[in-house]
UniProtKB/TrEMBL annotation:
<protein>
    <submittedName>
        <fullName>Acyl CoA binding protein-domain-containing protein</fullName>
    </submittedName>
</protein>
<comment type="similarity">
    <text>Belongs to the ACBP family.</text>
</comment>
<feature type="region of interest" description="Disordered">
    <location>
        <begin position="106"/>
        <end position="127"/>
    </location>
</feature>
<dbReference type="GO" id="GO:0006631">
    <property type="term" value="P:fatty acid metabolic process"/>
</dbReference>
<keyword id="KW-0446">Lipid-binding</keyword>
<dbReference type="InterPro" id="IPR035984">
    <property type="entry name" value="Acyl-CoA-binding_sf"/>
</dbReference>
<dbReference type="InterPro" id="IPR014352">
    <property type="entry name" value="FERM/acyl-CoA-bd_prot_sf"/>
</dbReference>
<dbReference type="Pfam" id="PF00887">
    <property type="entry name" value="ACBP"/>
</dbReference>
<dbReference type="GO" id="GO:0000062">
    <property type="term" value="F:fatty-acyl-CoA binding"/>
</dbReference>
<feature type="domain" description="ACB">
    <location>
        <begin position="4"/>
        <end position="93"/>
    </location>
</feature>
<dbReference type="InterPro" id="IPR000582">
    <property type="entry name" value="Acyl-CoA-binding_protein"/>
</dbReference>
Amino acid sequence: MSNTQAQFDKAVEIVGKLPPDGPAKPTTEDQLKFYAHFKQAKNGDCTGAAPGMFDFKGKAKYNAWKELEGMSKEDAMSIYVVLLRDMLKKFDDDEASKKFLAELEGASQKQWNSSMKAADGTQAAGQ
């Protein structure tokens, strides 16, 4: 698993755990960005017909995802992580936000450590 994938997976988990009444609450614009980058990371470019003209929420989500057309899945994952990190840093006086930020950073460090151990094992086996 790549470092980007590990951070993305942790970021998705954190976004799902954000308390709806907590201080670190994504704005509607943030929610659309998270949605669009999640969909681009998981599914690639937006396909299918646009929602009907009276489906305002569906249309907003569709348009947000459609704007990312051509973006790689890895770039979408990276941006998703940055969006969450930036949002959490705005609430650095909130303990829950600090905890989530530490978890996000920890996912990166944990994956890096695993990669280094695997590389050391590969080098040792090749010697």
